[in-house]
Amino acid sequence: MSKDQEFLPVAGGGLLDRRLFLKRSLSFSTAVLIAPNVLADTEDTRSAWMQKPGAPFSNYGQPSPYEQATIRWTMGNSMAPGNGVSWTPLHKLEGMITPSGLHFERHHNGVPKIDPKQHKLLIHGLVNQSLVFSMDDLLRYPMQSCYCFIECGGNSNAAWRSEPIQTELGYFHGMASCSEWTGIPLRLLLAEAHVKGRAKWLIAEGADAAMMNISLPLDKAFDDCILAIYQNGERIRPEHGYPLRLIVPGWEGVVNVKWLRRLHLSAMPTMARNETAKYTELLPSGKARQFSFVMEAKSLITQPSYGYKLEQHGLYQISGLAWSGRGKIVKVEVSADGGKSWAEAELQSPVLAKCFTRFRLPWQWQGQKAVLKSRATDETGYVQPERDVLLAERGEHGYFHYNAIVSWEVSAEGGIRHVYA
Amino acid sequence: MSMRNCFWGLMMVGAFSAQAEVLTPHLGKPASKELLSAWSNDIFPDGTGLPAGQGTAAQGKVVYQQYCQNCHGPEGKGGSADELAGAAHGLKDNPPDKTIGTYWPYASTVFDFTRRTMPLDRPGVLSNDQLYAVTAYLLHLNNLLDQDRVLNAETLPTIPMPNRDGFVSNYPDGK
User: Fold this and answer.
1) Do residue B25 and residue A123 have CB atoms under 8 angstroms apart?
2) pLDDT tens-digit profile, chain A (421 residues)
């Protein structure tokens, strides 16, 4: 097979076969953020940092000083700085795990500084025996890991607006992150307390200044919830729930209660503010969806995306993330012609349920105008909807649970902007 | 880990039987009455969990002006924090106004959320009487309570909230 034949596109707009990645090493062009690459005119035998000893050891490693722009953007309420969000810069990251320091945050009244020696977990309500556990107690229980995404129910809410927002991907879709969470399967502790048959809900409460609480159906608690103590191998960071966080795989972020101190077994939900006034989706009918916990399948092309510039014609790698709160991603399709034709992307192993899945596809860009999209399908057969389909179903004022296809328009000059297409 | 909705019921049965087979160290200690009393703060729409105390909207106006108005604006019309009253639009309008009066389905939630979370700069500072009073004031601003009517554990759950039936629950059995 000649090189020309091998590079025949598999869909419009220059998309190439995903298996090309596996066949040979390809020469890629690089989309750059703002500044073009600068290469030296002359080549030294030894670079400056090869001519003297490097820095000594450090107790806790930090990113390169050249990566200082890879940060969370933060947005707090001016009157209450601890009430707000910070976004994961998804457009600058690769792979499927989010570094803990870049995991998104949503706090309702700041990050508490909790002494683990004084922290305790109370399980009470419809149980035969109310129980209190110290952190030392909990550290002796059998643990397991869950590799899963957490996505805020309000992630991507800027996309409900009538005009497409022009900002880097992470700063409007980046209230989603993925970690290895390690801790105790919740059902083990519930078994020790002996849940009564009348119990149908679990009300979880955090030890923060908002004393945030939320109700969860008990079937989910017995299914796959974890009382996490570790995130990405180390004790959970304060802003992610130190010393104890309820992990509810695949469900909206607000139910993954941080700084967990209390689990109340109940016959009814408490109807907390965050399950009535907020985290419910107003529909065009005037009714609102409630307890719509599951984050449905979603995907995003992270590179190239808004803010990148294609500096040269040639071969590019389209890279992105897909996830579903219902299980595994089974397929991600990519379009470079605004959805007229689609090509299947390569899914990076491992593909795990309720976890970020990285997808990639080679793309030949020769200065053609293009509209890049990605579309995820999960193992239940659910297909990520186009934006107009989502809006037809939900209207424009749902605010939460936005999961429509995202479109990037590439100009003849290689500039990229966000479009509704 | 990846069981689907329709299998959750089966999974629960499986989980219950599996629990007996997993050895766990049983380190939990019985919760003391003092701890249960201090921490049991959940309030339900039927009034379960509401504490003793009472207040009126007239009293609550003073509390509101001292602790709430700086962020929520005069008469709950919104500021750096949410609009709570004074809706100019309904839920089907563009844009809709989601206030306590148009959107919140239960009065108990107003009391509960205020008690556990507000005011943000001094959470926990309000007495139960002040909480009943400021809840009464917020209901009054939404035309749901006369300004001199006493709000307490008996009367609060009886407030007819306009959007009580405005939600379509994925877990209807839970209500």
Assistant:
1) no
2) 455 556 788 999 999 999 887 666 667 777 877 655 556 667 889 999 999 999 999 999 999 999 999 999 999 998 899 999 999 999 999 999 999 999 999 999 999 999 999 999 999 999 999 999 999 999 999 999 999 999 999 999 999 999 999 999 999 999 999 999 999 999 999 999 999 999 999 999 999 999 999 999 999 999 999 999 999 999 999 999 999 999 999 999 999 999 999 999 999 999 999 999 999 999 999 999 999 999 999 999 999 999 999 999 999 999 999 999 999 999 999 999 999 999 999 999 999 999 999 999 999 999 999 999 999 999 999 999 999 999 999 999 999 999 999 999 999 999 999 999 9
CA A360 remoteness from chain centre: 17
Nearest to B27 among A140, A209, A217 (CB): A140
Hey, what are A8's tokens? 């025949």
- Which residue ranges make up each domain of chain A? 120-279, 298-419
**Pairwise CA distance, residues A102 & B80, whole Å:** 27
Total-model pTM: 0.93
* Minimal C-alpha gap between A176 and chain B (Å): 19
DSSP line for A96-142: SPPPGGGS-EEESS------TTT-EEEEEESBSS-EEEEHHHHTTS-
Token pair listed for B114:
């205020």
CB contact under 8 A, A286 and B90: yes
Nearest CA of chain A to the CA of B142: how many Å?
15
Which chain B residue has the Cα nearest residue A138? B27
Closest to A273 (Cβ–Cβ): which among B8, B113, B171? B113
d(CA A390, CA A50): 55
Q: Please report the beta strands in chain B, taking only residues with DSSP state E, as ranges in sequence order.
A: 29-30, 54-55, 151-152, 167-169
Q: Say whether residue A249 is in contact with chain B using an 8 A CB cutoff.
A: yes
Same fold, A120-279 and A298-419: no
- Are the beta carbons of A271 and B71 separated by less than 8 Å? no
The complex's ipTM works out to 0.92
Which among A140, A222, A270 is the nearest to B25, CB-wise?
A140
Residues 6+ apart with CB under 8 A from A7: A16, A20, A364
CATH of A298-419, one of 3.30.2290.10, 1.10.10.10, 3.40.50.920, 2.60.40.650: 2.60.40.650
Nearest to B39 among A122, A212, A286 (CB): A122
Question: Could you tell me the domains of chain B?
Answer: 53-166 (1.10.760.10)
Residue type, position A333, single letter: E
Give me the architecture of the A120-279 domain, per CATH: Alpha-Beta Complex (3.90)
C-beta atoms of B92 and A211 within 8 A: no
Query: Measured between beta carbons, which residues in chain A are less than 8 angstroms from residue B113?
Result: 272-273, 277
**Cβ contacts (< 8 Å) between A132 and chain B: which residues?**
28-32, 35
Helix (H) or strand (E) holding B60: helix B57-67
Closest CA–CA distance from residue A139 to any residue of chain B (Å): 10
Q: CB distance A223–B171 less than 8 Å? A: no
**Omega cis (within 30) before A304:** yes
